[in-house]
Amino acid sequence: MQPDKEPIKPNGKRHWGSHGFTLMLAVLGGIILLFILAPLFKMVFLSDKQALWLALLDSDTMRSIGLTIYAALISTAIGFMLGVPLAYLLARYQFPGKGIMEALVDLPIVVPHSAAGIALLFVFGSNFMVGEAFGAVGIQFVDSVAGIVIAMLFVSVPILISAARESFRKVDVRLEKVARTLGASPWQVFFRVTFPLAWRSILAGSMMMWARGMSEFGAIIILTYHPTVAPILVYERFETYGLAQAIPVAAIMLVISAMVFVGIQTLLRRSPDYD
User: What DSSP letter does each residue of 77-127 carry, written as one string?
Assistant: First the structure.
């Protein structure tokens, strides 16, 4: 591992101290990388293969994983429809309070997710105004799929908004102005110029939002313990039966998350503005 350009002494010899610096970076980086990867690889590759196969055949496990994937997809679709317009607004327009709005959009990332669940319960619970309004049309958020969806949406939509906002900012605004001078409407400019140039990063952000939604535990367990999503099932199996029963479900979810991550990296590397 070498830097792009190594310092050279006046006599043409390299500063060997730079190798020591590079080695130190590699050692320190390797430690944290090992800390991240070792538990994950051990769980997947050294877990009981028979238990993993039985988990794949278990109807409760498959139902829970299917519900997790489905609810995360619904929350991502809602986040896409509502978050992408907000991201474009933040990327292209200046207005009073814009900095505060950007901070508020990112706020769910730093809020403890159990606290987020309590906050959502105070808005969407059946005894509160919004919950009562939805309840009048037959939509309940406590102990329902709808509750899972809004919990996933709350904690993960900042990821999509941030990705879309940065992607829109990378699109040259002059291209939009040229399209406008040629008679295109703002809607036509967005759908024919801006979005086609930004879609890869937006799709990658959507996939990351989906993956983050699938991993949510704290907010969901406050709103909806049943029906059970995969993270809660892992917790339930661990509390009831111990580590051996929890590992197979966790390993399956880890493989799904890894596949999503590979897809995200592939999309980003194909993007022309990827560094």
Answer: HHHHHHHHHHHHHHHH---TTHHHHHHHHHHHHHS-HHHHHHHHHHHHSTT
Domain interval for residue 237? 48-270
Inter-CA distances, 128 with 30, 117, 224, Å: 50, 15, 17
pTM for the model = 0.82
Cα-Cα end-to-end distance for the chain: 19
CB 168 within 8 A of CB 198: yes
Q: Residues 146, 198: contact at Cβ < 8 Å?
A: no
pLDDT in tens, 162-173: 999 999 999 999
Distance CA 203, CA 187 (A): 20
Give dist(CA 216, CA 68) in Å, integer.
9
User: Quick check: is 275 in a domain?
Assistant: no
Domain CATH number, residue 139: 1.10.3720.10
54 touches 191 (CB < 8 A): no
